[in-house]
Amino acid sequence: MKKITTLSVSALVSAMLLITGCSTNNGNQETAAKSVSITEQSPATEKVGYSLGFMMAEGNKEAVQDLNLDTFEQGFRDGYEGKKSALTQEQMQEVLMTYQKEQEEQFAKDMETKAGENKTKGAAYLAENAKKEGVKTTASGLQYKVITAGTGKSPKATDVVEVNYEGKLIDGTVFDSSYERGEPIEFPLNQVIAGWTEGLQLMKEGGKYEFYIPSDIAYGEAGNAGIEPNSTLIFTVELLEVK
Hints:
This protein has 243 residues and is α+β, with helices and mostly antiparallel strands. The protein is 42% helix and 18% strand.
């Protein structure tokens, strides 16, 4: 969730005015949106305005998801045309601060709910997965399955390793993949999630394992980009080289 900052609100102001077509009608936003038609043959000033507005709106639409476009346009016009504001500066600041606080509180509640749900789902998944053939469980709760054993050396926690990998959620959603990027990755083994630090030390160069990582040795309650809090993760990892 994005915070409501001066920059994001300003960006939304510019973007939404253009989206509503800069209309002078009675606030009918559907009619307003149809009043401007942008094509490659449009004047340069119109294309610049549209491009700037579209990109700003696209990049900031998460800041205020329930924005009232009619009152937004009215406020923009009043400010731009130098009219007296319907609210004082203090009142407007208070409105925005209150809105931001409410959104942050709701976001925190949503994340707390998701964290609980993900913890329960993850525990159930791991309990069933542990029964599958070839799956082993360590003392930390890490589960792994050997796909290819490998014949080279095993890394220590302080080593740099080169790997190919794919990361998935338990619903099968791929959130990261070196295969998709088309190149392996190198990193110090002691600077990644605990499940990786432990798991890769079980491997040998040339090996390919599948790891099933409980949330407490993954990203925990904080989560990560594309990963909700308390998510159990599945990684397919090829250990290419210990540097």
